[in-house]
Amino acid sequence: MFHILIADPISDEGLDVLYTNENVTVVKDTGLKPDELESRIPEFDALLVRSQTKVTRSIIEKAENLKIIGRAGVGVDNIDLDAATENGIIVVNAPNGNTNSAAEHTMAMIMALSRKIPQAHLALKNGKWERSEHVGVELKNKTLGIVGLGRIGTEVAYRAKGQRMNVIAYDPFLTEEKADTMGIEYGELENVLKEADYITVHTPLMKETRHMIGPEAFDLMKNSVYIINCARGGIIDEDALYDALSSGKVAGAAIDVLEEEPFQDHKLLELPQVVATPHLGASTVEAQENVAIDVCHDVLRHLTGDMVKNPVNLPAVPSDVLSQIEPYFNLAEKLGMFLIRLTDDVPEEVNIYYSGALSDVKIAPITRNAVKGLLQRHLGSRVNDVNALYLAEKKDISIHENRTSTTKGFTNLMTVEVKTKSGVRSVSGTLLNGLGARIVRVDHYSVDVMPEGHIVIIHHKDLPGVIGKMGSLLAEHDINIATMQVDRSNIGGDAIMILTIDKYAEQQELEALKELEEINAVTAMDL
Ligand code: NAD
Ligand code: MLT
């Protein structure tokens, strides 16, 4: 049974996805203070939030059972992603469900600003029939500058064109060709700031975008420009905006978000030329249903061992690509687990070679599984797909992926090689059509072993009678051999024997084998 905490208000249509699942229990406790959340979090396997709850490092470090944090919405700046990744907690969001609502809200704010609707409305409600005070400006033929042309920025661009505005946009991923196709102008940030009559920001809030619209940016802008922020407080430097509004450089600003939320007595709100809403961009019935349903499905997917659709701290894998590579995840993990048992020294470098059918697929998720298998011996269940590469880096283990054309006769072949101070060890595996995973090479020995169950690897001398002696010794410990694979370097030289046995053999039960002078090393493992 998995326990899920809902810490912010989330639409019931989404929560029904959880309530109707018999494998989860749901606790809805919104508005917990940080110390309350910190003390309750160890009980839970999943945490669902919107933007109110700050999921800080200290909360994450207390969350000993937490596997997933779901954000019903786009922005994850309220979640410490580094802390989540380091602790192997996947973070998922719902990036698509509120795009329309946020774009529509942006357009509503642009119109409200241009036609002074909130100011006129307020005056009228106060019994003042004011007309000359509320003369507005048209949008037609004005230039809208968009900073950040992602999902919402793009939707805003199309809507602005519908208003017959010219659109110029800056986004590091925007090309001139794409801008042409969209019928908008491509600009660098500076061009956008200089040419636009209205500037709307739609970037995430990150180190690089914090205060990206500050005093220098305002200096570049046209006089009487309008500023809109329906993305995140902090992208615009609020002090600089206040000064620019007070001096008349900026004619008006529409703000849905501020650096500190909730906000009440902000100095920007005292200015009559500021139109503001309390972070309502995604507050529509449709958007809240969409994001809640999307995030709840992803939480269930993760808890039940399926791949999530919208990971934030793991690269997303499209479903057609996933169906191609998912069968290799288990093989990769088993190769890692197998190899690390043969390696007593600390791994310094890991090379993973992909060939045959594996040479032209997306290999990063397969690599993560191999590294997870390698690290599990020493780090246990703490390591998972989310943090495997991070933990390897922390341990100074460099990971290299290589695509090769050498298939050694297999349609697909994956080799994991570990370098330590005492040398290089490697293991190769393949997926056999209809028969599943096989280990086909251990160092330079050819074998054919299913990577599962109780396995004993014996390095020995290729001499007559060794196999018989070993069989008898194992029998004395009531260990029955299920399968046996043998290969040797040369006649009478070094050899390997890989046994699968019917029950787990303790290393000490195998100690007796080491007393045979023909045996160099014995390793037991459970895969
Ligand atoms: P998105 O990831 O689809 O788009 C963000 C775009 O910003 C990307 O194309 C990215 O390349 C671009 N970008 C990143 N750094 C940039 C930089 N330095 N300069 C210019 N562009 C840069 O995100 P989205 O879904 O479009 O959301 C945009 C913003 O809106 C986010 O901050 C999100 O949190 C916020 N949001 C607010 C509300 C609300 O209620 N007000 C609702 C939804 C989303
Ligand atoms: C988002 O990033 O999705 C919005 O800020 C909406 C919300 O607060 O949920």
Give a written overview of the molecule.
The protein has 527 residues and is α/β, with parallel strands linked by helices. It folds into three domains: 2-94 and 286-303, Rossmann fold (3-Layer(aba) Sandwich), CATH 3.40.50; 99-276, 3-Layer(aba) Sandwich (Rossmann fold); 319-526, 60s Ribosomal Protein L30, Chain: A, CATH 3.30.1330.90. The protein contains 18 helices and 22 strands. The strands form four sheets. It has a seven-stranded parallel β-sheet with strand order 8-7-6-9-10-11-12, sandwiched between helices. A six-stranded mixed β-sheet has the order 14-13-15-16-17-18, with helices on one face. The longest helix has 19 residues, at 285-303. The structure holds nicotinamide-adenine-dinucleotide and D-malate.
